[in-house]
Amino acid sequence: MVKERARILVVGGGYVGMYTALRLQRKLKQELKRGEAEITVVTPDPYMTYQPFLPEAAAGAISPRHVVVPLRRVLDGCQIVIGEVRSIDHAKRTATLSTLATEEEGAGPEPLTYDELVLAPGSISRTLPIPGLADHGIGFKSVEEAIGLRNHVIEQMDIASSTRDPAIRDAALTFVFVGGGFAGVEALGELEDMARYAARYYHNIQPEDMKWILVEASDRILPEVGEEMGRYTVTELRRRNIDVRLHTRLDSCTDRVAQLSDGSRFPTRTVVWTAGVKPHPLVAATDLPLNGRGRLKCTPQLTVDGATHAWAAGDAAAVPDVTADEPDATTAPNAQHAVRQAKVLGDNIAHALRGEPLETYAHKYVGSVASLGLHKGVAHVYGRKLKGYPAWFMHRVYHLSRVPTYNRKARVLAEWTLSGLFKREIVSLGSLEHPRAEFELAAGGKPPTDPFSDPKGSS
After folding, report:
1. Is the predicted pLDDT of residue 89 greater than 80, yes or no?
2. CATH number 3.30.565.10 is the correct assignment for the domain at 6-125+278-353
3. What is the band of 326 on the pLDDT scale with cuts at 50, 70, 90?
4. Where is this region: Disordered (predicted)?
5. Which of 303, 323, 330, 341 could covalently link to 364 via disulfide, CB atoms 3.0 to 4.6 Å apart?
6. Overall fold of domain 133-275+367-421
């Protein structure tokens, strides 16, 4: 039994937020029934996105709705609030909250009090002040961006197929990806594979007509899979006629021209930015301690260092890695740690409420797997190195085991099975981004333009 009624506020509905709330509603099942505890989850979206599946969703191998997990269904013992926490005054145990109704009501953000705080807002894309990036860049962190990018790539192929202007055709068929980490390499590999397949249905587009360019500022890509597998990945991508440029940066993308630091210029209508992430801005709007990189200082028990009743994990938290040889090492901001941290975090909050000793988070990184397209991949797991089909198969097996709920596992497995029996879907549903466009035009309005192509975008 908990010492007193506990109001637990979970900020964020990603890996850490969802799994922590899920663990808490199991650990505190009786307390929740008796009204001795309540769990409130504040999240901008009513679902958790399983990000490792975004590249396959972009390639059409998985339906977008099967990449997300509905929070209200999974967290039936919690109160789900769709909104954003703007600031936190932990000294007063108060969070400032904006919801979808806040603007309609005109009353401004409202205070939300709590007893225990779980801060797991995740991360956002780490961008640089590159000219033209805000106008033309495309991110790859959400399911909306993944599907929008898929539609955009197919639309560019449609433009190239129908234009008589060679400059427009060349720009439409040039795709620049910035960032050689998991997101960039997997997105590029899956989309190039999809576009290569789709080209067979265009009478005047050949796979070799398309230019796929990967720009990476460091000396290698996919550092998580090791140097050897990183070199293999570069060789594999170049064998597929993908231009991999190491020690290279994007200097500008104004006027639909990608200007690289090596002097190259590529007219293009597609610049995908996947060059890293940074902690969510919310952590800077709190009175909690941060490290030099803007992440929350945490203890190995996942409490915020020096703050009672505050907990954190995931991308926005600097959690000490007790398994590392270096004394100041912290765990990497990835899903492998986030899911495991959430389990310990949920258990420790229950322990704290019951006056029990806390557990220490300790997990030695076991390795990584990456998909490079259908039947292609690389892996470095438990010291073993795999490439090609075995690595791709391991990638699918691993992530199928990790995606939450049996419902999603079954649906994803069914889609993979069907995709093995039938041909790929190459349909672009770009009109979904502007569902009122046809009616607006019929009613005398102006049709919206493609936000990825128009310099000023549209909404």
Report:
1. yes
2. no
3. confident
4. 440-459
5. 323
6. FAD/NAD(P)-binding domain (3.50.50)
